[in-house]
Amino acid sequence: MFCDGCGAAVQPGQAFCSKCGKQIVGPVSLMQHRAGRVQEHFRLVGLLWLALSAFTTIGGVILYVIANTLLVHLRRGGIEGGPPAFLTPLLSTVAILLLAKAACGFIAGWGLLQREPWARVLVLVVAFVSLFTNIPFGTALGIYTMWVLLPAESEQEYEAMAEARAA
Length: 167
Hints:
Oligomer: single chain
Distance between the termini: 29 Å
Low-confidence stretches: none
Structural class: mainly alpha
Number of helices: 5
Number of strands: 0
């Protein structure tokens, strides 16, 4: 039981709070447990990473298809001022990197939703990369992810949640 003035622990039948001296009148109510930052937000963070990764996958596939079909046909057609030869492998490489980043985002989001012990670190790494690569949505999600999962208290809370799931 807790004092409604300062929140200090109060014994049943105690007339005054030992910390602030406030008179205890009537029944002393129990404080409700407030969920921590990770517990309130980890599900939303995981779902947002899955959604952003889906959009990144779509962009990567479209870029790969354009690089290996449209640009190749334009170059073979002999159109004056057509795309340079280095553009196809460059765009293909960028598309493959986007698909790899999306795969990491899918794995991180799924791991976070499953409360895997390794998922917090992976999500933070992907969030840092997204700060600079997926402007503006990846930047916003990266900042939100770091706000939820980066503090030391968040690490302890997430580890407790992961252990509770494993048990």
